[in-house]
Amino acid sequence: MDRFFIKKAVTATVFTSVLFAGFILNMRNSYQQLKNNVSSDLKEGKSVTELIETVDATINENTFAKYPCIEAYGYVQRLLNKDEENDFEVIRDKDGSLHFTYFGTEAKDMSNLADKVEFFKDHLTNKQTKVIYACTPDKVIEGVTKFNTGLPYNYANETADALLTELAERNIATIDFRDGIMDSGIPYSDLFFKTDHHWTIQTSFWAYTYLVDQLTEHFGMKVENASYYTDINNYNVITYPNSFIGSLGRKTGIYYSGVDDFSLIYPKFYTDYTFTTTLEDSKLQTTGIFNESLLNLAYMRYDKGKYDIQGDRYSTYLYGNHGIAHIQNNTIKNGPKVLLVKDSYMVPVASFLSTVCSDVYLVDPRYYEGNIIDYVNTIPDLDYALISFIPQDLTEEFFRFE
Predict the structure, then answer these.
(1) Partners of residue 235 on adjacent β-strands
(2) In sequence order, what are the residues at sequence separation of 6 or more whose Cβ sits closer than 8 angstroms to the Cβ of residue 73?
(3) Is-contact 362 324, C-beta < 8 A?
């Protein structure tokens, strides 16, 4: 009997020691960042609930040996041949691509969001501005993407269909990239990153050409030499093999997700830009050719670690997402002026679109705290106002039109 209790005591002591050691290592790893974040929240007068959320997020982000643990867990899941991780937060299709998802039962009601788009259109001062909703594709392509039985589906495509139907009833024009994506000439396996929720840069370039075709054919946009600017042969395409791990891969580890190639596309022809945005409350303005002013090449050179967000090469274009940004093409004086109210899918697309426009403006509702309609009404002679969110982003957070 004494031996039994001794074994229990030793086990409890070892277990408690491991927990305590983990606590000490985690506190050492996160203390300075935790101190900075909490101090910042206190200065801003945030609530106790927000402080708790800050503490929780900071400790989770700075967990000791976080990524080795993720890799170990992901490797075990791979050995077990599992198609889901983190309680179905991330799932894997039969092609090996990862997806964010959740269990859904039907398409969401989109009448309220359609009303907000209509409100946006009705409250633009310039009634000559054409308002268009541009529907980007979900990573799950209907009839093409296949999953094993039992994995969740969120009805994102059906929700997007519901929004387009509601917009049609309100006489709001739409462009649906889903209509042409399977005819893009890009192999299905290369349309999206396997380790990320974004489409690849090659697909972004195709989306740019599709958008120009739609705007010129159906909405009267005039572009000189459109066939030249939309020809991929007039662009440099540099591919970096096995160099990119996206947001999904950072959650599962590369032993589970694999690693993606990443391609950088930029013009061979002469360009001259002025790009203006705000980074952490300071104004950023860059000038010069496309790859000097619109690309943050530091992301391509950054090699601190595969998981560090600073190594997210998708953010090479336009320095990532910002509340507002303005691309001015100094080689085109009286070209189209286009606004994009968008999520991150449209960042590289906007970069390419700038080659045929005199001005491209961007607003991201997640980061711009001002009134979006008021901002749009400050833009003179705006020709097109495009609203574009992926199907999974069809939520109140993005449609802040009031």
Answers:
(1) 267
(2) 85, 253
(3) yes
Distance from C-alpha of 328 to C-alpha of 273, rounded to nearest angstrom: 6
CA distance readout (Å), 72 to 63, 78, 177, 303, 311: 15, 10, 38, 22, 21
Q: Where are the beta strands (DSSP E) in 185-334?
A: 235-244, 260-267, 273-279, 282-288, 324-329
Helix axes 48-61, 2-43, angle to 10 degrees: 120
Cα angle 393, 156, 245 (rounded to 5 degrees) comes to 65
Which residue is associated with the tokens 């939520």? 395
pLDDT in tens, 364-402: 999 999 999 999 999 999 999 999 999 999 999 999 998
Distance CA 201, CA 282 (A): 28
C-alpha 71/C-alpha 66 separation (Å) is 9
Q: What is the pLDDT of residues 76-111, one digit of tens each?
A: 888 888 999 888 999 999 999 999 999 999 999 999
Residue range 256-303, pLDDT digits in tens: 999 999 999 999 999 999 999 987 677 899 999 999 999 998 888 765
What is the torsional sign of CA 218, 222, 223, 224? positive
The 3-state DSSP class for residue 113 equals helix
Q: By the 8 A CB rule, do 324 and 368 touch?
A: yes
Q: CB neighbours of 318 closer than 8 A, spacing ≥ 6?
A: 275, 277, 294, 296, 325, 327, 347, 348, 350, 351, 362
Closest CA to 362 of 345, 378, 350: 350
Residue carrying structure tokens 């309680």: 87
Residue 125: closest CA among 304, 361, 385: 385
Surface-to-core class of residue 100, CB atoms within 10 Å of its CB (0-12 exposed, 13-18 middle, 19+ buried): middle
pLDDT for residue 279 = 75
pLDDT for the residue 310: 44
Virtual torsion, Cα 232, 233, 237, 239, nearest 10 deg: 90
133/394 Cα distance (integer angstroms): 12
